[in-house]
Amino acid sequence: MGRRPARLLWRFRAGTRLPRSERRARSSGTVSLVHGKHRKRGGALAGLAVAALLVFMGTAGSAAGYPVQYCSQVPIVGGIPPWGFHTGAPISGATGSYARGHGDVSLSHNTISGVLCQADRVRHQPDRVIIMRVQGHLVYHSHTAVLWGYPGNLIKFIVRVNSSTDPRCKVGTRGVVTLFGSYNGVRSDSVQFSFPAACRDHDHLYHGPQVNTQVPPGANGQGT
Fold first, then answer.
1. Is the domain of 117 the same as that of 218?
2. What is the pLDDT of residues 17-41, one digit of tens each?
3. Which residues have CB under 8 Å from 163's CB, separation 6+?
4. What are the tens digits of pLDDT across the range 150-207?
């Protein structure tokens, strides 16, 4: 898209040769053509530039018409966290959902901490965002779990809604998050959120090549 204004300008310069009277008027900077054609040399170039800018803005607007307005409370960390995930690219359309999170974990002590964010977008309404904190202990972890037909690492833990822009999903509501990370060179990760009825709109299962999880390897089928 960055080259389009130059291409339009090249076409303008390399176009049909203007009649002598029009070239004379154009060289003087006065009106050269009427009936919707070039009125001034500067006006013609400005018109082309504006047209190209509008094309660019239209394309940019379609890609960024729904700017990211969520999950700033959950910073993106560098490197590999003890546990973490994201569910792909942020929402770019009129509807969709997105989540990410990270934190610390000790499988030997069965403890876990961290923060998560999930955003839901529905048409003609503000984004519904919940920020969650992990509640202390792992519910379950395994190094030999099998999901989607592949082996992998799995952890399950409880979260508490710490802040919410969804009036139906109140602060203090608890839910369960399950992270699965496949191994042996297979990419089939998944993230699942499960909530009671008040927050059921935030029950989501993310699975596919766009999902990326970091789940530590643990013992076989340990839980509290």
1. yes
2. 444 544 444 444 433 333 333 334 4
3. 73, 130, 131, 171
4. 999 999 999 999 999 999 999 999 999 999 999 999 899 999 999 999 999 999 999 9
Same-domain pairing of 55 and 165: no
Count up the domains in the chain and report the number: 2
pLDDT of residue 70: 67
Burial class of residue 132 (count of CB atoms within 10 Å of its CB; 0-12, 13-18, 19+): buried
Residue 76 is assigned to a structural domain of this protein? no
Residue 59 falls within a domain, yes or no? yes
Q: Does 209 share its domain with 98?
A: yes
Contact of 212 with 85, CB cutoff 8 Å: yes
Q: Does residue 65 sit in helix, strand or coil?
A: coil
Are 204 and 103 in the same domain?
A: yes
Tokens, residue 158? 């409880």
Q: Between β-strands 150-164 and 111-121, what pairing exists: parallel, antiparallel or unpaired?
A: unpaired
Neighbours of 202 (CB within 10 A): 25
Q: What is the CA radius of gyration of the chain?
A: 28
CA 8 from centroid of its chain's CA atoms: 33
Bridge partners of 159? 134, 175
Buried b (16+ CB within 10 A) or exposed e, 62-91: eeeebeeebbeebeeeeeebbbbbbbbebb
Per-residue tokens: 196: 């009671």
Residues 115 and 167 in one domain: yes
| All residues at 6 or more sequence positions from 203 whose CB lies less than 8 Å from its CB, including other chains | 193, 194, 195
Name the residue range of residue 161's domain.
83-223
